């Protein structure tokens, strides 16, 4: 949101609107309870089958995982690989290079979350 302030220290509504719109877009794509957990699991484990992924992302139902994977694939974060030559057909999911661009975002969120949890425990507020 630094872009909201011009060189004289004044807020500009256009810059704030653009920043807010960008944040809203990002949250729309990666927000929710499960998407970042799925992305992190795929980045940590590499190629992984659906049932394995469901075990790793504890608490997610098969239907929700399926829908989240479709959304993540649509947005370029996940690639679905079908091995039709095998019987039964094997389907694996992998994170894309594009999903790896979220690494700094995930690390920043992790650090912020740790700090926030510590502040809450120490009753800083």
From TrEMBL:
Enumerate the UniProt keywords alphabetically. DNA-binding, Transcription, Transcription regulation
Q: Which residues form a coiled coil?
A: none
InterPro entries found in the cross-reference section: HTH_HxlR, WH-like_DNA-bd_sf, WH_DNA-bd_sf
Q: Which residue numbers delimit the HTH hxlR-type domain?
A: 16-121
Q: What is this protein called?
A: Helix-turn-helix transcriptional regulator
Give the originating organism. Answer: Chryseobacterium edaphi
For this protein's source organism, the top of the classification is: Bacteria, Pseudomonadati, Bacteroidota, Flavobacteriia, Flavobacteriales
């Amino acid at each position: 949101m630094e872009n909201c302030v011009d060189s004289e220290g004044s807020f500009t509504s256009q810059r704030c609107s653009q920043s807010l719109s960008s944040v809203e877009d990002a949250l729309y794509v990666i927000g929710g309870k499960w998407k970042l957990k799925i992305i992190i699991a795929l980045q940590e484990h590499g190629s992984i089958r659906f049932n394995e992924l469901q075990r790793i992302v504890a608490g997610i139902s098969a239907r929700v995982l399926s829908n989240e994977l479709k959304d993540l694939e649509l947005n370029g974060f996940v690639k679905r690989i079908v091995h039709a030559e095998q019987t039964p057909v094997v389907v694996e999911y992998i994170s894309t290079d594009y999903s790896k661009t979220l690494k700094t975002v995930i690390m920043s969120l992790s650090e912020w979350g740790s700090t926030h949890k510590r502040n809450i425990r120490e009753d800083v507020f």
